[in-house]
Every structure is written in C-alpha cells, then in structure tokens.
Design a protein that fits this description.
Layout lengths: L1 H18 L4 H4 L3 E4 L14 H12 L4 E2 L3 E3 L16 H7 E3 L11 E4 L2
Parallel strand pairs: 1-2, 1-5
Antiparallel strand pairs: 3-4
Helix pairs in contact: 1-3
Length: about 120
C-alpha cells in the first residue's frame, strides 16, 4: 500500500510542478503526449503513470489537450532492470505506432512527457 501511495503523491507533485512553470501559459495550448513505457497497453505490467500525471494537470486546466498518440506495439524488457540492454532510439521508434484515430484535430504544438 505504501508504494501505491508514494506513486500517487509523486504523480500529484509532478503534475503541480509542471503547471507551476513560468511558461505554463504557452505550454497549456499544446497537445500533451505521454511517451509509452516499456510495456504495451495490453500487458498486465503496463504503467500509465505519465498519462495519470497529465490527467492531474487536466483537473487544473480543463481544456488541456491530452492524447496517447504513440503506442508501443509490443512489450520489451525495462531498461532499468539489472542486466538489461538499453534500447537505442531507433529501437524505440521502431516499436511505436501512431494512433491514427487521435490525429484530428491537428495539434498546434506537441509536448512529449517521458520518464
């Protein structure tokens, strides 16, 4: 239970930190896209914390445009695991697909949130 509470506190802290930035008025008009984690959405170990950070931000700024435009096609080993081989940028890009149903309306600017 403590780990879940810690994660929720961290999500809230990061969300409020992002909306308190001096550039918030410029940033809030962009489309916010969480970068997919190492697990695909269909994986039971999928971690949606970046998306939850954005949802917390949306509670403050109701018009915030949040879209999961990028999806991981398949799960991979997390790079932070002991002995794991860190994937190259090209490996990540090859595993991502764009959710075509979320491309409209065309974003005016995109901010990617990643761990």
């Amino acid at each position: 239970m403590a780990k879940v509470q810690y994660k929720e506190q961290a999500i809230l802290k990061i969300a409020y930190w992002l909306i308190s930035t001096t550039s918030w008025n410029k940033l809030k008009s962009a489309t916010w896209v969480p970068i997919p984690p190492s697990k695909a959405k269909s994986d039971p170990l999928y971690d949606d914390r970046l998306y939850r950070v954005l949802l917390k931000m949306k509670e403050h700024e109701g018009s915030l445009d949040i879209r999961e435009l990028l999806l991981a096609q398949s799960s991979r080993e997390a790079a932070h695991n002991p002995g794991a081989v860190r994937p190259k940028v090209q490996d990540h890009l090859a595993n991502f697909v764009i959710d075509e149903s979320l491309k409209v309306p065309k974003p005016q600017g995109i901010i990617y949130l990643m761990t």
